[in-house]
Amino acid sequence: MKTETIGSAELQIWTVDEVAQAWARNEIVLIDVRTPQEYMFEHIEGALLLPLPFFNAEKLPGQSDKKIVFHCGSGIRSDKVARAALDAGIDRIAHMEGGFAAWKQAGLPFIGTNMATGAPQRVNG
After folding, report:
1. How many CB atoms lie under 10 A from the CB of residue 73?
2. Mean pLDDT for the chain?
């Protein structure tokens, strides 16, 4: 994990492997900041959807039980959201480096769309 100190706050940049391991152990809340259309087409199973245009850092839950990790398609939007959370007074927040593209490239499972039926289906990477 990389970290960046911004004032008295800490931005954590997690690798896909770090996120996958923490996700499997139920240690994090994974928040997808992509569009609803991107999410409907394919997403990490169980990740919550909070699209960037609707993001309000002041409404985020506390992190006493599970750490919040944001992700997007490539890591750009999740970095932006994480920095907005820090600006709103959250003292530590994380995002996944490389985004969903890196997740898929690592061969990790996700929910995709069956192009023949339009139905969601589990894709094992």
Report:
1. 18
2. 95
CATH numbers and ranges of domains, the chain: 2-123 (3.40.250.10)
Nearest CA to 89 out of 116, 60, 115 is that of 60
pLDDT digits (tens, 9 = 90+) for 57-107: 988 888 888 999 999 999 999 999 999 999 999 999 999 999 999 999 999
Instruction: Determine the residue type at 18.
Output: E
pTM over 0.90: yes
Going by C-alpha positions, the residue among 123, 92, 78, 102 that lies closest to residue 11 is 92
Q: Which of 28, 72, 96, 102 is catalytic?
A: 72
Q: What six digits make up the tokens of 109?
A: 């499972």
For the question of residue 72 being annotated catalytic, the response is: yes
pLDDT given for residue 125 in this prediction: 72
**Geometric angle at alpha carbon 33, from 15 and 90, rounded to 5°:** 75
